[in-house]
Structures are given as C-alpha cells and as structure tokens.
Write a structure and sequence with these properties.
By secondary structure, this protein is α/β, with parallel strands linked by helices. It folds into two domains: 201 residues, Rossmann fold (3-Layer(aba) Sandwich); 203 residues, 2-Layer Sandwich (Nucleotidyltransferase, domain 5), CATH 3.30.420. The strands form six sheets. The chain has an eight-stranded mixed sheet, with helices on both faces. The chain has a five-stranded mixed sheet with strand order 12-11-10-13-14. It has a two-stranded parallel ribbon with strand order 9-15. The longest helix is centred in the C-terminal third of the chain and has 18 residues.
Length: 437
C-alpha cells in the first residue's frame, strides 16, 4: 500500500540485497556511514532503501539523493525509474524529480552549489560517492534532516585520508559520533554473495599494478595520498627543475576547451624541446576563431597533435586545409587512458621536465591526478578530481605522444631552420626533414 487514500494496492518488486549489504544499509541508526569497494552494490542498495523510505512516508515529504556530478545524479535518477513500475510515479526529466502517488517527491541533486541545497526538511537523504562530495554540501544535507530527525546514508569508495568522509567514518567506527554507525562492504562480501566475479581482484591488480590503490578500491583500505597519484608524486618531483628550459619547441600538443563560458575548460598548448622539456605553455579562454588563429600562429609547421573532440573538430579541419603538420586526436576513454600511460612512462623515465614556477598550473594538475572507478563500468581510470581541470595534463600527454612518434621512434631526422626577428626563434621545419615520407 503506497498511500492511505489510494483504493488499490500495487506490488513493487525490489532488488534483493545480500545479507551484509542489507544489514549495513537498512541499519536502524539515523546516520549510517558505509565505506565500500567498487561494484559492491552500495548505490543500488541505497536506491532500494530510499524507495522503502518514500513508500512508507505518510507525511508526503521530499527525499533527496546527492551525487558529486550532474552525470551521476542523472544516472541514478534513471536507475531509480527502472526499479519502479510506471503507474506509481511521474517524472520530470529536466529537474530529475520523481513524484509519487502518495505525494512524496524524490529529487536527485548535485553538490555544485552547496548553498542551493538548503531548504525545507526532508524525509530521508542519501549522499552517494561521499568521498567525492564537498564537505559543505554534506552539512547542507544534514541540516535538512534535523526537523524530522530523518535518516541519512553516506556511501562511497575510500579515497585516501584527506577528506571529511574518511574522518567522519573513523569517528563513527570508534564510537565518537552519537547516533551514527559505521559499516564496511569489501569486494569479498560482494564476491561471496555472487555480485562480483571471483577473479575480479586479481584481474584488477594485474591490469593496474599498484597494489595499494587496488586494495583501496576492493578492500576499502585507504592508500597514502602519494600512492593515489597514478604518475607518482615522487616521480613528478624528479622531473621538476629550477633551471630555464629553452626552445625551440619541436612538437606541440593541444587540448581544446569544450565550452567558451566563464570558468569552463581552458585551451592549452604545450611545446616540448628536443630533450622533452616544456619550453612553451599557452593557456587561454577564447572563441573558436581566435583559438584557431592563435594555434596557427604558434605552431608554424612543427608537428602538432590537437584534441578534435567537440569544438576541436572544426579547428582541426580548418587547420588541416593548409597545414600538413596538424593531426587530430579524438578521445575515447580507452585512447585517453593510453595517452595517460604514455605520459606516465615519460615521467618515470624523466623523458619530460617542467619548471617549478613557470609551469605551476601544469604541476598542480599533475599532482592532483588520481585513480577513479567509473560508476557505470567499474573500470579504473586516471583522471582529474571531480570539478578540477585536466587541460594541461592532456596537452602534455599529446605532446609526449607526438614527440615519441616523430623523434623517439627515429622515424625522421630534422634540421633546425631559423627565421629572422628580434627573438631569433627557431623550429624544426617539416620542409627540412630527412627521411622516408
């Protein structure tokens, strides 16, 4: 029965949870903090729990689901609809709001603006991927539950020790957080329940190599923050120099901004010299016409790999009409990961170098990179933290790939051809190349 004024009963079959999953999520405590392995069923289990909260809510309250990104919030919104028979709800695709026949509403939000979360009291709340949620957003959600003393479920993977979710879990685990309980779901729990394949851990360890990160993902055991960086923070530091890095640039990599709005991605170009040093770093936000012309002026006839995803496709096509040295790179997730591994190899072998002050924006991005588990596929990928930029890292990875193709594989030899001007700048011209074309 989903509402006392309804004249019919509707059976709603819900996914059956395995025992440890059920005990953790359906715990009677008001605040339950759950550190869980990848693909252990934490999010789907919380969907089931919140559906039961909504269907038994006679006060017709709002219930909220908080995710770190708009894409993940929409993904969980669609998963929720798939769990429900269509006759018990109506849905608004624009606002990702589900309205139930019993008068309750279920809203799927992001933590992009913590101040926008505050409002009237709610009947229940789920903070999904809590280790990626802003602390201010969690406090906003918690404030919404105080009126009715409503239950909260905070679930997420472990992501090092430097986040509010990890600290709150430790307080609950040690009994220092009144009214809260702590639970952990490891991959072994999911494996024993038949949710994950028996060889999942071994395959992940063989594929990604870093045992500390794989244990963090599968056993919910925190790795040191230095171990969470796929490039290795110590290896990045070995590539930093305080000496000037001189040109000329022999290759370029360009990451094109996906949008032109304020605060969005940046167009970034990185030029490497013959030794792999970053001798040029260009970074701006501008319209497509300006971006295309600036790239044309900067690269001359030197080999150049350009991101042709989105608006980059138009820029690449226009440049290729008159420039044979421009190559487009369209990113799939697999291609992006391959570029990241190529960059990691260059960093580990000190085949690239960066200036400690002139390239601070690049170094900040490199140091912030981390392992992430895709909520959709469960695959581990290397990426920037949520809502942080990766433009410089992508441009560097493409420049490294171009250098490997043109120089390190010894496919071509180049003569330096200098042109006039006050700066005496030079480049390796395709017109002066020696080799088989």
């Amino acid at each position: 029965m989903i509402g006392e004024n309804l004249s019919c009963e509707i059976d709603i079959p819900l996914m059956q949870l395995y025992p440890k999953q059920y005990e953790a999520i359906f715990n009677p405590a008001g605040l339950v903090l759950i550190e869980a392995s990848t693909k252990s069923g934490k999010s789907d289990g919380c969907l089931v729990w919140q559906i039961t909260q909504i269907l038994t809510d006679r006060l017709r309250r709002l219930h909220i689901w908080l995710a770190p990104t708009r894409e993940l919030a929409r993904e969980m919104y669609h998963r929720a609809k798939q769990m429900l028979p269509s006759e018990v709800y109506t849905a608004n695709e624009t606002s990702t709001m589900i309205r139930f026949l019993n008068g309750c509403r279920w809203s799927f939000l992001t933590d992009e603006d913590p101040d926008a979360i505050y409002g009237r009291g709610v009947g229940s709340a789920v903070v999904d991927e809590a280790s990626r949620i802003k602390e201010a957003s969690y406090h906003a959600v918690h404030s919404l539950t105080t009126t009715y003393q409503s239950p909260i479920r905070c679930v997420g993977n472990v992501r090092g020790r430097s986040n509010w979710f990890y600290r709150l879990c430790r307080r609950a685990e040690h009994g220092d957080l009144p009214g809260a309980v702590y639970r952990k779901l490891s991959w072994e729990d999911a494996r024993d329940a038949g949710v994950m394949p028996a060889d999942a851990y071994d395959r992940a360890k063989a594929q990604y190599g870093c045992d500390a990160i794989v244990r963090e993902l599968f056993y919910a055991e925190p790795a040191d923050d230095s171990q969470r960086n796929p490039f290795g923070t110590d290896l990045i530091e070995r590539c930093i120099t305080n000496r000037a890095i001189y040109g000329p640039a022999v290759v370029y990599g360009w990451d094109i901004a996906g949008t032109q709005s304020k605060g969005s991605d940046w167009t970034v170009g990185i030029g490497l010299n013959r030794d792999g040093g970053v001798c040029e770093l260009h970074r701006w936000q501008a319209d497509t016409i300006t971006t295309r012309q600036r790239i044309r002026d900067i690269i001359g006839d030197r080999p150049c790999l350009i991101d042709q995803s989105g608006v980059g496709l138009t820029i690449v096509q226009d440049l290729q009409e008159t420039m044979s040295n421009v190559i487009g790179q369209k990113f799939s997730d697999r291609q992006k990961q391959a570029l990241m591994r190529g960059l990691a190899s260059a960093i580990s072998s000190r085949a690239v170098s960066f200036h400690q002050t002139e390239h601070k924006v690049l170094l900040d991005e490199l140091m912030a990179f981390e392992y992430e588990v895709s909520p959709r596929t469960g695959h581990i990928r290397w990426t920037a933290p949520v809502k942080q930029h990766d433009d410089c890292v992508m441009a560097l990875a493409m420049a490294v790939e171009q250098k490997k193709q043109w120089f390190d594989n010894n496919r071509f030899g180049f003569d330096v051809i200098r042109y006039g001007g006050s700066r005496g700048r030079g480049w390796h011209s395709l017109a002066g190349a020696r080799g088989i074309w």
